[in-house]
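@channel anyone free to eyeball this complex?
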Amino acid sequence: GAGVSQTPSNKVTEKGKYVELRCDPISGHTALYWYRQSLGQGPEFLIYFQGTGAADDSGLPNDRFFAVRPEGSVSTLKIQRTERGDSAVYLCASSLSVAGEQFFGPGTRLTVL
Amino acid sequence: EDKVVQSPLSLVVHEGDTVTLNCSYEVTNFRSLLWYKQEKKAPTFLFMLTSSGIEKKSGRLSSILDKKELFSILNITATQTGDSAVYLCAVELQGAQKLVFGQGTRLTINP
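replying in thread with the prediction:
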């Protein structure tokens, strides 16, 4: 079956602009996670959804970052007033239930010029 | 602060060699330890370990967890060029559905 998909695969933007990154989880997976991976580092947790609600957003670096999952399926990560330090690969993962194996998408590479 | 440390950060070996990758952790509330392989972008799941001393095996790959000494190893025998990747270790925390990752080990297998 289809895995986790993310769009766009690459996004180049200018400092100060607003961006939206989309994640389509595996059908039926109730849990959805966002991670950020900088070059040469492991992924860092940003936010976790159980259904429509953000169960844990402790990893969001500041209030420029926001994520939604209005219907409990697709999620959008929104970054306002982008900064060069936001450049990274943003990974999305989903799992069938809490504490289940997390399946990762291919990521969106964000470059802020 | 929850921390996962992998070593070595980088390893270059010849095809056919055996490699051992290390992962140590210091976390507040351990639930499980996971290994992932990352070739391009998406990490792909290898193993989940929850109990000490029980080896998980899949083909040429195997892994074991030591909960007393707080570490895990990933072994790859008879390495092939297709094993070249970044190997990520992550710890899942009890009561918090998120993974804390190490920096990864970049493994390069030369023919």
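from a first look: Chain A has no helices and eleven strands.
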